[in-house]
Write a structure and sequence with these properties.
There is one protein chain. With 736 residues, the chain is α/β, with parallel strands linked by helices. 35% of the residues lie in helices and 22% in strands. It has three domains: 34-338, polyphosphate kinase like (2-Layer Sandwich), CATH 3.30.1840; 357-517, Endonuclease Chain A (Endonuclease, Chain A), CATH 3.30.870.10; 529-713, 2-Layer Sandwich (Endonuclease, Chain A). It is built from 18 helices and 29 strands. The strands form five sheets. Strands 16, 20, 21, 22, 23, 25, 26, 27, 28 and 29 form a ten-stranded mixed beta sheet that branches. Strands 12, 13, 14, 15, 17, 18, 19 and 24 form an eight-stranded mixed beta sheet that branches. The radius of gyration is 30 Å and the shape is globular. Mean pLDDT is 88; it is low at 1-24, 260-271 and 721-736.
Length: 736
């Protein structure tokens, strides 16, 4: 440990001095060996998702759910990240990341790890999940395995519901290979005429409007039986090719580049440009081909030629082409006993039903922890603002919300009522672009001012500003959050909502809105840290301040809860703080490029990841600050895109009670989790934590759920005691 002395200047100030003579050697912070590859770190995150499906202590249908999440995650990874890497390789980009890997090296590593994970997933499905489902009266079968009665029903279903939807598409000199949609399921058919000759090929697309997993009718006490739509079509495919001899039928699925490439500077109309790009993206360049395990090589070669792919892009699957289509198993209410115990969010005592939210906010700040605290109060706040004649204006940033959002409906009502409604809509919220365009148009038609963000930046912050004329004065009411204005995901994502009308903070939120909608530059703020203007610079200074506290012998600690940690400069600054012996705990759900526990570099840094029933989405920054702690909640992860290419807000919790709730309850429960938490190792792998010694089997999400359930019980009205009945006997009744 470096020896630290204090040097006293003429004005009495103490500054730390580190003696170089006894300072231990430190590792070079920018060495590529100190950084984990971003893409490989993401794959390790998806491995943790798969581990939840492997966990035999999980309810069976929850294990199926995690299999579907794993598949959906991997699809998006190939659509966006792998597609980008393949473009770098094609353009012969020679640049390397902080980890020192070239695009080709990264791609090769991705293929190795992804294949291992997919093989594990399908082995788990075939050898564990399917047999367990069967034990519980749920069968997922091939059509050929059905008994005679069910086979008849399946054939009739095919004739009535499926056959009319099918269109065989010939592939020959006059019929080019069809432009198949991203992630669509298809069958490649090879046939020949009765007279022989060259083989004929055709494509049959599996309809998207029919469930990919079909439940068969069942009698009382009979097991549930499901069949795959693709297998049903394959079983009866001959009916589409009368007069031909079929030589082979094999299912395949293609994944395409789905990233949107939009030049804000060149786009005259951003909304129209994105609509055009969305139509194009469903037919982007192919990046992955998935085929059945028994698909012969000549079939694969034909498909590879069509899609301009190589053997490195093929995944042979021993099971369904996508487990994302197992959703009917997850949503079937008949399987409730095989799912997690139902959870109903509590209502925060500060916001009881029918409370005047504005009056509550004038009395106190409110902090909600979703989904343990319900999201209804936020919806009600906006609905109340829309109806309240004293509310003059509503401003909101909208990154994601549901297609039938009550928030959007309330904003439309407010605009229709003549209130000043301004919605900063992010049209480029990945995979929600079409929905955002739809309700942006509805808002405009209602008379709201709809602004499509700032040129070159994504508006990712979550902010609501309500201007109300109270009896004493005009007042700002503000909601700031770490999550989206999305009532559905608020039931499954962990996030924080902060409600306040504290003048200094709300005035700064008003300045942020004016900066985003007007022409004025960013003036600099005291309380809010805003990207891309000053968030990163101020964050680096906060880390440096902890370093200086540690060198001076004062309490110094950093705890950050994030979705991702990628930014090289921030990581190097954390290494620097660790070398000064600042204790650093990072709770990073997904990507983490920092290597912890490296002697001379990061031995004072621990990194944890929690993957559980709810998706950990909240961002918390805690700094001990020499025993004067500061806590910030934020919309931003510590990634270059959040710091440089997005509008983000980090806001302080100044209220001592709310700040202490984060410090003394929320963060310790995450750090002490010994059920759903994994610790990152220096080699990039993760070790699942278990109780050691007398440690309790603590689980953060379970703790917060149980606290919420207790509040629900306390809030439930007690039944009134029934009046006692006095028995009447014949002897007590007077005869007439």
């Amino acid at each position: 440990m470096p020896q630290t002395n204090l040097k006293v200047s003429t004005d009495g100030a103490e500054t730390p001095v580190v003696s170089p003579a006894i300072e231990t050697p430190v590792r070079e912070r920018s060495d590529p060996a100190n950084f984990i590859n971003r893409e490989l770190s993401w794959l390790e995150f998806n491995r943790r998702v798969l581990e939840e499906a492997q966990d035999p202590t999980q309810p069976l249908i929850e294990r199926v759910k995690f299999l579907t999440i794993f598949s959906s995650n991997l699809d998006e990874f190939f659509e966006i990240r792998v597609a980008g890497i393949k473009q770098q390789i094609a353009s012969e980009t020679s640049g390397v990341g902080p980890d020192g890997l070239s695009p080709t090296e990264t791609f090769n590593n991705i293929q190795r790890v992804a294949r291992e994970l997919v093989a594990t997933q399908y082995k788990l499905w075939k050898e564990e999940i399917l047999p367990e489902l069967a034990k519980n009266g749920i069968r997922v079968q091939e059509v050929a395995q059905l008994n005679a009665k069910r086979a008849v029903w399946a054939q009739r279903y095919f004739q009535q519901e499926v056959f009319p939807m099918l269109t065989p598409l010939a592939v020959d000199a006059s019929h080019p290979f069809p432009q198949l949609l991203n992630k669509s399921h298809n069958l490649l058919v090879r046939a020949k005429t009765q007279r022989g000759g060259e083989p004929l090929h055709a494509i049959v697309q599996v309809p998207r409007v029919i469930p990919r997993l079909i439940a068969l009718p069942r009698g009382k006490d009979e097991p549930w039986t499901y069949i795959y739509l693709a297998d049903l079509i394959k079983h009866h495919i001959a009916e589409l090719f009368a007069g031909l001899i079929l030589e082979g039928v094999h299912a395949f699925r293609v994944t395409r580049n789905s990233d949107l490439y939009i030049d804000d500077e060149e786009a005259e109309n951003l909304l129209r440009t994105i609509e055009q790009e969305l139509r194009r993206s469903s037919r982007g360049n192919a990046v992955r081909l998935e085929v059945e395990a028994d698909c012969p090589k000549d079939f694969r070669d034909l498909l590879l030629e069509f899609f301009e792919l190589t053997d490195a892009d093929v995944y042979k699957l021993d099971g369904p082409l996508s487990m994302a289509h197992l959703a009917p198993l997850i949503t079937n209410d008949a399987f409730a006993k095989l799912r997690d115990r139902p959870f109903q969010p509590a209502r925060d005592p500060a916001l009881p039903p029918h409370a005047d939210v504005f009056e509550v906010m004038r009395r106190q700040d409110v902090l909600l922890h979703h989904p343990y605290d319900g999201f209804d109060p936020i919806v009600e706040l906006i609905e109340e603002a829309a109806q309240d004649p004293q509310v003059l204006a509503i401003k909101i940033t909208l990154y994601r919300t549901s297609g039938d959002s009550p928030i959007v409906e309330a904003l439309i009502d407010a605009a229709t009522a003549g209130k000043q409604v301004t919605a900063i809509v992010e049209l480029r919220a990945r995979f929600d672009e079409a929905v955002n365009i739809q309700w942006a148009r509805r808002l405009e038609e209602a008379g709201a001012h709809v602004i499509y963000g700032v040129v070159g930046l994504k508006t990712h912050c979550k902010a609501l500003l309500i201007v109300r004329r109270d009896t004493d004065r005009l007042r700002h009411y503000v909601h700031l959050g770490t999550g989206n204005y999305h009532p559905r995901t608020a039931r499954t994502y962990t996030d924080f909502s902060f409600l306040t009308c504290e003048p200094e903070l709300t005035d700064e939120v008003a300045i942020v809105f004016n900066t985003l909608t007007g022409l004025s530059g960013y003036p600099g703020l005291k309380k809010l840290m805003v990207a891309p203007f000053d968030l990163k610079q101020r964050l680096l200074k906060l880390i440096e301040r902890e370093r200086d506290h540690a060198l001076a012998g004062r309490p110094a600690r950093i705890i950050a809860k994030l979705n991702s940690l990628v930014d090289q400069e921030v990581i190097e600054k954390l290494y620097e703080a660790s070398q000064a012996e600042v204790e650093i705990d990072l709770i990073v759900r997904g990507i983490c490029c920092l290597r912890p526990k490296i002697p001379g570099l990061s031995e004072n840094i621990r990194v944890f990841s929690i993957v559980g029933r709810f998706l950990e989405h909240s961002r918390i920054y805690y700094f001990a600050n020499g025993d004067q702690p500061e806590v910030f909640l934020a919309s931003a992860d510590w990634m270059p895109r959040n710091f440089l290419r997005r509008i983000e807000i980090a806001f302080p919790l100044a209220d001592p009670a709310l700040r202490d709730r984060i410090i003394n309850e929320v963060l310790p429960n995450f750090l002490h989790d010994r059920v759903k938490s994994r610790e990152l190792q220096p080699d990039g792998s993760y070790r699942r934590l278990k109780p050691e010694g007398k440690e309790p089997r603590a689980q953060a999400q379970w703790h917060f759920r149980e606290r919420s359930r207790e509040r629900v019980k306390k809030a439930r009205p007690k039944p009134e005691s029934a009046p006692k009945l006095v028995p009447i006997t014949v002897a007590t009744v007077k005869q007439p």
